[in-house]
Amino acid sequence: MSSTRNMSTISTTSASFYGILLVLILLSSSLQIVMANEQEEEFCKYDILIDNKSMIVDKCYPSPASYQITGQYKHNVVVWNPNVSCASYSKHNNNNNDNNNNDNKKMMYVHSSGLPERVYPMTAGSGPYIHTYYAAAFDVLPIPVGFYGTCVEGFDPELLQDQQHCTKTFRIARNPNLCQ
């Protein structure tokens, strides 16, 4: 009988131990999520003004539109437009190499990199009638400070997702009537 009682005590003690362990694991996971959210909030300390008004995420704005990056992390922000074709840029500015023959380095049209004071107007001038623009803060800028209004070789936001924070999107329409 005493061995049954001892086994029962051991089972209760094991269950309590595993219960406490589970609670600690859950608390640790919750703490990691809170810390990640706080880090994301830290990098969201930038704003984009479009035509001198705070940008509304995913809103469509008529072209031409000017923008300004403000806030604490404005020097860590890259703004890019994946809707611009960099193929012609590559052919003319990459030692006459064909776009498919440049070591598979992606090219992306960058509006500004780390220089919030110097931006290139957004016009959606070619390609689709409505362009989606992206802005994100980075711990360390993935391209040199000062690139603006040009295609940049090797900047691939898809490969840099773990380094970008607080990504914001907005749209620019070539024709004002398309923003409805």
Question: Which short descriptors sum up this protein?
Answer:
180 residues, alpha+beta, three-stranded antiparallel β-sheet, 2 helices, 27% helix, globular
Radius of gyration computed on alpha carbons: 25 Å
Shape: globular
State which percent range the strand residues make up. Answer: 25-35%
Q: Kindly report the average pLDDT value.
A: 76
Q: What's the total count of β strands?
A: 9
Describe the 3D structure.
With 180 residues, the chain is α+β, with helices and mostly antiparallel strands. 27% of the residues lie in helices and 27% in strands. It has helices at 2-43, 87-93, and strands spanning 47-50, 53-54, 60-62, 67-70, 77-81, 107-113, 130-138, 150-153, 164-173. The strands form two sheets. The protein has a six-stranded mixed β-sheet with strand order 3-9-7-5-6-8. Strands 2-1-4 form a three-stranded antiparallel β-sheet, with no helix packed on it.
Brief description of this entry?
The protein is of the alpha+beta class. Helix content is 27%, strand content 27%.
How are the secondary structure elements laid out?
Blueprint (H helix, E strand, L loop, with lengths): L1 H42 L3 E4 L2 E2 L5 E3 L4 E4 L6 E5 L5 H7 L13 E7 L16 E9 L11 E4 L10 E10 L7
Parallel strand pairs: 3-9
Antiparallel strand pairs: 1-2, 1-4, 5-6, 5-7, 6-8, 7-9
